[in-house]
User: Fold this.
Amino acid sequence: MSRQYALLLVAMMCWWLLCAPAVRCSSLARSSRAAEQKHNAAGRESSEAAGRKADSICITVLYDNNPYDGRLKTAWGFSCLIEGLGKTILFDTGADSGMLLSNMSRLGISPKSVDVVLISHIHYDHFGGLEGFLNQNNAVTVYLPKSFPERMKDVVRGAGAELVEVAKPLKVCDCAYSTGELGRGLKEQSLVIRTSKGLIVVTGCAHPGVVNVVQKAKELCKDNVYLVLGGFHLCGLGPSEIGRVLRGVKSEGVTLAAPCHCSGDLARREFEKAYGKDFIPLGAGFRLEVSRIKKGICVYAGTGAKRARDVEAALDRLAIPYEELDEHAVRNAGLKACSVLVMPGGHTNKMVDALGSDCLERIRKFVLAGGGYVGICAGAYMAAERVEVPGRPAGLAIIAVTNHRKAGRGIKNITITQPNHPLSTGCQKNVRIWYENGPTIEPEGNVETVALYEDGGAAVVSSTYGRGTVVIFSPHPEGSIEAGVTPENLGTLDLFRNAIAFASRDQR
Ligand SMILES: [Zn+2]
Ligand SMILES: [Zn+2]
Assistant:
């Protein structure tokens, strides 16, 4: 493609954004489809694949001064990876490429998977890792603010990467846009992603002011802001200034807030107070999935489901919306609104009794037709044909296992035996996990074992049932509020999230 043509294309995209900002993502996707057909001639990826992925987004913090995943290094700076759009976007690179690349490797993310690098602003803690990253992968398009000095642009060109200079708002790929350079002194661009839940705004330091960035995103994409994440630049400010910004963000109708990097501890605490369960405690290694799970996570919270609140607290931490169901709801309305049913821990026989054979049959049919089932502890006992609780032989029979009843309470070690399984993504090989009277699972037939206890008994297994997916846990990946066991501290929140995402797929 000639340079003139590329410039014309960028100009056309800017026109689309500036003159027709109200058009829906799908129309923008179509406009780019025509453009991408030209790219295809040059061997670029097909935009058809891009379209299919556009509704499933995963954001992983690769570099931050706030710790989250104990395996990763932390240092002053910011970088995150956005997957699930037509292209994989690396937003900022932190200060040091060595640390960036080592954190990526810890998370099993290859630098080669990145298609686009977008640098927010000219502060070393955001672009310092760029050159080292380009040494690993130069087959990327780098979006730099136009105001960057020529020597920085030369670094990109010299590495053999494609450079796009950003002044005005522009489209980066399907459903992802740069705000363009904002701010009077120091110029900064932020990334805006369109999702079915609203906009996601990613900021580097938000030097132009996080409220201004949010307003710009709304104006550009004519939608509400679902989530703002990144540096809010409130470090070192006092409570009154932080309060003013917090009220501004709230009054813009932002649903979820995830301040990290230069937001500062005080601001993070204030946002957490104001946002409650809608505050996301970002740090290095945090993976946030938005709209992969489109709808309908249902948690059984009826009679006997003592541990439902642990499951709900974990879903809150992951910003996954859910609905509570009790036995009456299952009996009256069925599971029509659900894509995944989470059956938590509790008193197995009380739960089986309350649900009765009619509700168990409804659950069975739900999974058979493509629903997901995540059973934890009591929910794992119930999934088998025989519940193995004295006097309660009839279970759901949606997974071919024999559950051997065990008793005990405390933190146990499990070993992930299938590191490449979708349930294990982001997990360490050896995991410490909360245990409370869960079964030793003996798998049969087509049941896959994902994790084992030290004594060799299965702890986490999965299989399909009809078109549905079943995952059962003997231990508690969601932790225990009562025992003071926080799943993110143990690293089991990943396991829990993976199970929800994995079970939400429909097996066709
Ligand atoms: Zn910074
Ligand atoms: Zn900065």
Notes: The longest strand covers residues 57-64. DSSP finds 16 helices and 26 strands in the chain.
